């Protein structure tokens, strides 16, 4: 999701050489002028922010299978049609349909502690519902759980309380180091006879917002409820267990998984003028979790992808290769949209040059992470860093492309992840706080311009 990297000395030398050459070439001068046109259009007449306002405030949360997700499909289609793209169409996708149901309830009972504070908690996506009242055992690693005697786990909640590693500069790395307990905590707890899993929210922020997110089950293991505690509630519970190891946790959740339903990817296309058979994809995921408006995750990526195509047309820079904006459905709890897009592309024998994804929020641009089989492909993209440097989007190096475009890995030369300042991202990620008012207009429009500029260069020069 996030695409950070270190710039090596050899890369810096390469940029110096390229920069000196670029100053003497007509192409580089033309490219510089054209990229300036893109940024001028974005900063003076950008439409990303207003499009995001509509998506977030008139539709809101867009969990796969929900009526709001279907409204978002129609919004995406109509928005791209109004912009005059050459072709706008839908790709059918069968998606999961999980519903949260009534608001979750949780309470701690303890004779030693007396009255206890409110527990801020939410069901993890995909969890079964259920009511349970039991003791709690806290662990911070899989090894800790494995070493506990069965008698200390059976019939209790397992409380996975491993925090983010705040020594790490990149929050995405800290997320990666903690998220496994969310993903398979319920499985490992159930294997030991636990009645449920309680998981610390995936953030370094200390607040009362619980973070939902996908979890999974093993069909060979009983399915037990899984819920996320806000970091403040997790810290309180940890201290409470020290004071009273025999306290009881009471949980009530009514979530359930309904039959799968039909939904769609939304695709808008501008046909290339010289190499229309070579395709560049840019996209974000249209679905979001159900607690808020899905602004940074991933409304911003969707509107930036649409805007990237609009900026090319508005700047008079019709691409030489075909460019598609794809609003993928079901990234959050299945990646069915990304998988279906790749499947259809392969069946049609399409030739994809590159795929770009924005799914790290709409914060201040930094550059791009490039995932490619050949180091020369990464170096090719790095050569354009001087053209993006005036706009502070020049940090280009090896990185992760993105979940939605991942299934295209064997069909493209490069998967490219849009990279922005991620320090605040996990304060909002998968929470009720991920709302439109948290997005800054200028940061958002600059991101769309950076993506459009890279598409312009990819379309002109290839890889």
TrEMBL record:
Domain of life: Bacteria
Entry-linked Pfam families: Peptidase_M28 (PF04389)
Entries under InterPro entries matching the protein: CPQ, Peptidase_M28
GO cellular component, as recorded: extracellular region; lysosome
One of the GO BP terms on file: proteolysis
Oligomeric form and interacting partners: Homodimer. The monomeric form is inactive while the homodimer is active.
PANTHER family for the chain: CARBOXYPEPTIDASE Q, PROTEASE FAMILY M28 PLASMA GLUTAMATE CARBOXYPEPTIDASE-RELATED
UniProt protein name: Carboxypeptidase Q
